[in-house]
Write a structure and sequence with these properties.
With 269 residues, the protein is mainly alpha-helical. It has one domain. Helix content is 74%, strand content 0%. The protein is built from 9 helices and no strands. The termini are far apart.
Length: 269
């Protein structure tokens, strides 16, 4: 009788062990976890993934990093000049009288920030069009679209300069014109600098929130610039409130309305 009980226990034990055994096929399906030491010898490649990857994304990315590099160099060697150029103040003394070297550096630095503004704003507009107006630009090549964007920016800048110089010539307000050009230039330069990190975040992370953040940044800076133009206009006794409103409509609102009209009519894109 004792032997029968032992045999029954042996059978039960064998059944349990056979049910719990793992076959070779099961072990092949289990993924093995590699343990890595903190101070390891082997290198690990970190490859960031572009969210908005196109055939020309590399060109845009390299251009933005180049602009950031030049901006860092200027920030390191000429911090006082950089703070003066990017200052939202009405009047800033960027150059010393009679200092030839300072004038040359001022021209070079200002030229870089003009290029930086045009490139960064153009790329930001390009991203907005590629994200929200895909159907409208599907038949337009990349370089044709870039040409349209930069031609539009150039026309808007030339139009603004023409209106400012024409108003100064008619009303004999050269000093007010210089202040207006200076505050407008500084705001444009600051816009170009702030857009570079925003564009890089959009390329590598994506998300509509960063697009909206970039648009909000442009709108806030332009609203501040218009406010400063109103202050400049009110500082002169020859301009009334009606003159200032008409001037701002001609300078700011009219070109925007014409541009929006052209876009909706399909004349540009």
């Amino acid at each position: 009788m004792d032997n029968s009980i032992l045999n029954d226990l042996y059978v039960i034990q064998m059944d349990d062990t056979t049910n719990n055994t793992i076959t070779s096929n099961d072990t092949n399906n289990v993924s093995l976890v590699d343990t890595v030491d903190f101070l390891q010898i082997e290198s690990i490649d970190i490859n960031p993934i572009l969210h908005s990857a196109t055939t020309n994304t590399d060109i845009i990315t390299y251009t933005l990093f180049f602009l950031l590099g030049v901006f860092s160099i200027i920030w390191y060697f000429l911090p006082e000049r950089l703070s003066a150029i990017l200052s939202p103040k009405l009047v800033s003394k960027l150059q010393k009288v009679g200092d030839v070297e300072t004038k040359v550096l001022g021209s070079v630095v200002s030229g870089f920030f003009w290029i930086n503004f045009i490139i960064s704003v153009g790329i930001f507009i390009l991203l907005v069009l590629q994200i929200y107006y895909v159907n409208e630009i599907i038949n337009i090549s990349f370089w044709s679209l870039v040409t349209y964007i930069y031609l539009t920016l150039l026309v808007l800048l030339l139009y603004r300069i023409f209106i400012i110089w024409g108003a100064a010539l008619i009303f004999q307000t050269n000093s007010l014109m210089k202040e207006q050009l200076e505050i407008s230039r500084n705001i444009l330069f600051l816009t170009g600098v702030l857009l570079i990190p925003i564009i890089l975040v959009i390329l590598y992370i994506g998300g509509d929130s960063f697009i909206y953040f970039g648009i909000a940044t442009i709108v806030i800076l332009q609203a501040y610039r218009i406010l400063q133009l109103v202050i400049i206009g009110k500082s002169s006794t020859i301009f009334s409130t009606l003159h200032i409103i008409l001037y701002l409509c001609t300078l700011e609102i009219v070109p925007v309305l014409v541009l929006v009209r052209l876009i909706h009519n399909g004349s540009i894109i």
